[in-house]
Amino acid sequence: MNVEQWAVRVPKKNGEQRRQQLIANGLLDTALKPFTEGEDILFPVTGGIDGGLRASFEAHEKRLATTVRHELIGGIAVLQERDYAAAGSLMGSRPGIHTVLATTSDVQGEYRTREFEVLAGVPTTRTQIIEYGHRFTVDLSEAYFSPRLATERQRVLHQMAEGETVLDMFAGVGPFAITMSKSACLVISSDINPAAVIMMKENCLDNRCTNVMPVLADSGRLSKILPWKFDRVVMNLPLLAHQFLEEAFLLCRPGGTIHCYALVSSDGEYLEKIRSFQPSGVREHVVRSYSPGKWHTVYDITAGK
Ligand code: SAM
C-alpha cells in the first residue's frame, strides 16, 4: 500500500549521513520505505522541513497500522470514518500521535471548520504543528489549518523582498502571516473568526513575531478600515476569494502582488474576472490536486499601475 507523505531528496552518496540526522531529530517516518530516484534517495519525514516535497511511499508490511488512510495534523491523526480498530493501532504506531479523530462533517461554514469525534487518545481537538521551524497551535474544531499548504507558504515567502508590507485577508491561526513575517516589515493578518484570531495571537507570541498585527474583521470591509496600500496581499479562501478581488485590488499598491487561491476544474477559470481589474500580469500555478477533477490553484497577480 502506498501513502503520501513529506519527503526529503538527498544525493545517494549522502544518504546514510542524512538518514542518521533525520533519526536523531525524530523526523524520519519509519513506517514508510525510502526509495531511490536517479542519483537521489527520497526519505519519508513526519513534517514539512526545508527542501521538503510530497511523495508517495510504500508502507512497511509489518507496520500496517500506519497505512490506515489518515491526515496528520501535528499530533492529531484524522480519519474519514469512525474506525476504532484503525484508530487504536494508529495510536500505537507513532509516538508523536496523541489523538485520533474521525471527521463527522465536511469543511463547512464561514470559518471553514470541521466537526470531529474522538476515537482514541487524549480527548482534544487542539494540537501543535511544527512547520519549517515555526510552531502553530490550532484547535481544529474552532479554526482551519492545513499542513498541505506548508510548501506553498515557503514559495510565497521566497518571492518576497525584504521589508514588504503584507496583508493576509483570510489568515486563520496565522501560518501564512507568521511565515511571511520573516521578510516583511509589517503583516496585517485578518480573520472573521474570533477563535482563530485568539490562536493567531498566541502563535505570534510563541514564534516571537513582533511585526504581525492580528485583526478581527470581515475582509470585505478592510479597505474602509485600513489606511494603507500593501506590497503583497494573500487571499487564501479558495471557495470564495474571487468575490473579494475588488477589495484586494483596492488594498494593493500599483505593481504589488496579490496571491488569490481558488478551487478550479479547468485552466484559467478565473482569468477573465481577474483581467477585469486590469492587472499588469497574472500567472496561474497549481498548488495541489484537491479532489478528482478539482485543483487548488493560486493566481499570482501583479496589480496594474
Ligand atoms: N490562511 C489560513 C491558513 O492557511 O491556514 C486560513 C485559511 S481558511 C481556508 C479561510 C479563513 O478565512 C478562515 O479562517 C475563515 O474564518 C476566514 N474567513 C472567511 N470569510 C472571511 C471574511 N469575510 N473575512 C475574513 N476572514 C474570513
Structure description:
By secondary structure, the protein is of the alpha/beta class. The protein has 3 domains: 1-67, Alpha-Beta Plaits (2-Layer Sandwich); 69-124, Met-10+ protein-like domains (GMP Synthetase, Chain A, domain 3, 2-Layer Sandwich), CATH 3.30.300; 147-302, Rossmann fold, CATH 3.40.50.150. The protein contains 8 helices and 18 strands. A 7-stranded mixed beta sheet has the order 14-13-12-15-16-18-17. Strands 2-5-1-4-3 form a 5-stranded antiparallel beta sheet, covered by helices on one side. The chain starts with a strand and ends with a strand. The structure holds S-adenosylmethionine. S-adenosylmethionine is lined by residues 110-112, 143-146, 149, 170-172, 175-176, 190-193, 196, 218-220, 236-237.
Domain count: the total is 3
Shape: globular
Number of helices: 8
Q: Care to count the β-strands?
A: 18
Task: From the structure above, extract its key features.
globular, GMP Synthetase, Chain A, domain 3, binds S-adenosylmethionine, Alpha-Beta Plaits, alpha/beta, Rossmann fold, 3 domains, 38% strand, single chain, five-stranded antiparallel sheet, 305 residues, 18 strands, seven-stranded mixed sheet
